[in-house]
Design brief:
GO terms for molecular function: hydrolase activity, hydrolyzing O-glycosyl compounds. Pfam families: Fn3-like, Glyco_hydro_3, Glyco_hydro_3_C. Keywords: Hydrolase. This is Beta-xylosidase. Among the domains are: 238 residues, Glycoside hydrolase family 3 C-terminal domain (Rossmann fold, 3-Layer(aba) Sandwich), CATH 3.40.50.1700; 136 residues, Immunoglobulins (Immunoglobulin-like, Sandwich). It contains 22 helices and 28 strands. The strands form 6 sheets. The protein has an 8-stranded mixed sheet. The chain is globular, with a radius of gyration of 27 Å. The protein starts with 18 loop residues before the first helix and ends with a strand.
């Protein structure tokens, strides 16, 4: 082995040397088998007794023999905390003991990199369940999302995890897709800015953020999971790719996960132009590309572009996938055999290996003082596992406070005839399948819904007050009567009569509808839970309609993973409150909005359809995608992207624009005043939409290019100054290059995509200008108080 004669340690363990020198020395010393061992993971579950992890037996994989694998080393440990319920302290001990064994068993003392899910919080038993990403989008608040991600990252790092499989940067193209709850919304700028903030927070805690799914997963035909994606190169470039571009450039994400889908016949896992040409050669990404679970094997079994496992391995490796997850399959013996007989060049193995070892070096896993003991177990007696139980709290007061803040900011008031906020009602009828259901606030990647459901009898690990619980606390002097009415999706009509009886006797009827999150058919939303229509699941619409027939005012509350058409309720419900799986503090947030304790400030990250069968439809459509006289289908939503009401009123006035003309390589500035003219404090979410009346290729009618939250007390006003770079008008032109064209532009200053308040018109002048991934991505928005307001 290469040893530095001065220090007496191996070159790859010497932190005084550059990472490049250390990694090159290590690669030179490795056999092909040892190299390949760093390119795959093993799916494990931590021991609740503190012993070593146990390989997880998945129905898509054969059993793994760790004793046979570990002498060559191991690249990753898959989901040690997110596989079985385990006390966090004992899980950390289990992981530490396993890491000790891994490092001691291979020649170079290299531990594994441990990854876990963190889509809506660290997916571990007892960890905080934050709102799902669709709720992050509803906040229009990157700063708070950044703080949440940093908290998630600190918890993960403290117990020995290195990589988190989040955020999802897929842009919603069809709300029937089951994974809508995992996305941030239907607009690439909103997805990009909120997703980038999440990446920044996670990375600030030392956790490798993993962008997924690269690229096109959400554009599948008919909203079906893992279906082909029907998108052209322009839609891909202008809608699907920008969030990834932003998160790499501004977020510093260190990992990317491929999408399962194929686009025009090319699976992402085999797409060298995407994973190497665009991602690395153009954008300059230098991190690792990890396979979505089983995606490399899918090249043979689902896509049919590989004849055997070796062919699948060679294709993925050549395309640019560095690490096979979740288990060793194609990158094990099949890849070794393909390298031995010359079908796969060893240079491709070395290329992927260099990236994975560089990441391990930067994480400190090659340093001589590396310890398997994570920060949360420092100074603790590890020989007494029983004493460790309950020592680590992954759901402390600071986490819960942050979870509540995000949940409160994400509640969207869709409609209100003045019934809300409720003024001390004497009798509330609390109705519907989600009125008294603890897990109604959780998405499918929360630990209780993802893993806990497979372990009946195991406690949830976190407090999940139902809406019944929080309303009782919010209205202590009110008589609250509960009637379920019907189930989420059982179609049972037998309880509707009782629900209507209870409603008749009440001052107000709160009907709580929506989803049950689950995986692959276990839920009405979630991975593999796609729908053919956006009608409410089961008999929920029948329950809602029966209540609307009464004289009692009905407030409709939705706890859901996707937007649903709610029929007559759009016009007839006294109010509609939308919440997208708001997490463990979600019912407190909803109760606060209902009572007026907190003011609603959420805005829709996805349009709410008027009709259940008008998909696919998003606000981000060209003229032909909107209502017309030549089609009987009207895709106009009931509530548009960006919509959300408040308990106060805001006036927008005094628009000024500094120039009427600006060169295509410059910027222009506009200013306006927003004033709270109501009697309550509130938050206005100012949104900037760009409309390009004439372009060389078809453009969306408008697209979001900026936004900001403005908090105002009654009577208070702020002057907003917005600087808009001409780069924001760029799009993919006829020749496939991104272009800024001269011509007139409209900047619509709006409360939603359907509610423009002020419009600035500026003409771009000069030559057509091509831009690339280094273009300016944001408008600059400043706020200053208005004197005398």
């Amino acid at each position: 082995m290469a040893v530095d004669n001065t220090t007496g340690i191996s070159l790859w363990n010497d932190p005084t040397l550059s990472v490049t020198v250390r990694v090159d020395a290590l690669i030179d010393a490795m056999t092909v088998q040892e190299k390949i061992a760093q390119l795959y993971g093993v799916w494990v579950g931590a021991s609740d007794q503190g012993g070593e992890v146990a390989p997880h037996q998945h129905d898509m994989e054969e059993a793994v023999d760790l004793d046979a694998l570990l002498p060559d080393g191991l690249g990753q440990l898959t989901r040690p905390f997110g596989t079985v319920p385990v006390d966090p302290a004992l899980g950390a001990l289990s992981l530490a003991r396993t890491q000790s064994r891994i490092a001691a068993t291979n020649r170079f003392g290299i531990p594994a990199l441990a990854h876990d899910e963190c889509l809506a919080g660290f997916a571990a038993w007892g960890a905080t369940a934050y709102p799902v990403p669709l709720s992050w989008g509803a906040t229009f608040d990157p700063d708070t999302v950044r703080r949440m991600a940093a908290a998630i990252g600190r918890d993960m790092r403290a117990v020995g995890v290195h990589q988190g499989l989040a955020p999802v940067l897929d842009v919603v193209r069809d709300a029937r897709w089951g994974r809508v709850e995992e996305t941030i919304g239907e607009d690439p700028y909103l997805v990009g800015t909120i997703g980038t903030a999440y990446v920044q927070g996670l990375e600030s805690a030392g956790i490798v953020a993993t962008l997924k799914h690269f690229a096109g997963y959400s554009a599948s035909r008919a909203g079906r999971n893992l279906a082909p994606a029907s998108v052209g190169p322009r839609e891909r470039a202008d809608v699907l790719l920008p969030p990834f571009e932003m998160a790499i450039r501004e977020g510093g994400a260190r990992s990317v996960m491929n999408a399962y889908t194929d686009t025009d016949g090319m699976p992402s896992a085999a797409d060298e132009d995407l994973l190497t040409g665009l991602l690395r050669d153009t954008w300059g990404f230098d991190g690792t590309v990890v396979a979505d679970y089983f995606a490399i094997a899918f090249l043979k079994t689902l896509h049919g572009i590989a004849a055997d496992w070796a062919g699948a391995a060679g294709t993925a490796l050549r395309a640019g996938i560095d690490v096979e997850l979740p288990n060793v399959k194609t990158y094990g013996a099949p890849l070794a055999e393909a390298v031995a007989d010359g079908r796969v060049p060893e240079a491709l193995v070395d290329r992927a290996l260099r990236r994975t070892l560089t990441q391990k070096a930067l994480l400190g896993l090659l340093d001589p003082d590396w310890s398997p003991v994570p920060a949360a177990l420092d100074g603790v007696d590890l020989d007494d596992p029983a004493a460790l139980r309950g020592r680590i709290d992954l759901d402390g007061p600071e986490n819960r406070a942050l979870a509540r803040t995000i949940a409160e900011e994400a509640v969207v008031l869709l409609s209100n005839d003045g019934t809300l906020p409720l003024e001390r009602p004497r009798r509330i009828a609390l109705l519907g399948p989600n009125a008294d259901e603890p897990v109604a606030v959780l998405g499918c990647y929360s630990f209780p819904q993802h893993i806990g459901v497979r372990h009946p009898g195991t406690p949830l690990g976190i407090e999940l007050p139902t809406l019944r619980d929080t309303l009782a606390a919010e209205f202590p002097d009110t008589e609250i009567t509960v009637a379920r009415g019907t189930g989420i999706d059982d179609g049972d009509l037998s309880g509707i009569r009782e629900a209507t009886r209870v409603a008749r006797e009440a001052d107000i009827a709160l009907v709580v509808l929506g989803d049950r999150a689950g995986l692959f058919g276990r839920g009405t939303t979630g991975e593999g839970c796609d729908v053919d229509s956006l009608v409410l699941p089961g008999a929920q619409q029948q329950l809602l309609d029966a209540l609307l027939d009464l004289e009692t005012p009905v407030v409709t509350v939705l706890l859901a993973g996707r937007p649903y058409a709610v029929g007559r309720a759009v016009e007839e419900s006294a109010a509609i409150v939308q919440s997208f799986f708001p997490g463990e503090e979600g019912t407190h947030a909803i109760a606060g909005v209902l009572s007026g304790r907190t003011h609603p400030s959420g805005r829709l990250p996805v349009s709410v359809p008027r009709r259940p069968g008008s998909q696919p439809a998003t606000y981000l459509g060209a003229r032909l995608a909107h209502v017309s006289e030549v089609s009987t289908i009207d895709p106009t939503p009931a509530f548009a992207f960006g919509h959300g009401l408040s308990y106060t009123r805001f006036d927008w006035t005094d628009l000024t624009v500094d120039v009427q003309e600006a060169p295509t390589d410059s910027e222009f500035t506009l200013a306006f005043t927003v004033r709270n003219t109501g009697e309550r404090s509130g938050t206005e979410v100012v949104q900037l939409y760009l409309h390009d009346p004439v372009a060389s290729v078809v453009q969306p009618v408008q697209r979001l290019v900026g936004y900001t939250r403005v908090d105002l007390e009654p009577g208070e006003a702020r002057r907003l100054r917005v600087t808009v770079p001409a780069d924001l008008a760029s799009f993919t032109g006829r020749d496939g290059r991104r272009v800024v064209e001269p011509g007139e532009l409209e900047v619509r200053l709006a409360a939603s995509s359907a509610d423009p308040r002020l419009t600035a018109r500026v003409t771009l002048t000069g030559a057509e200008r091509h831009v690339d991934h280094t273009r300016r991505l944001h408008a600059t928005i400043g706020q200053e108080p208005v004197a005398g307001a």
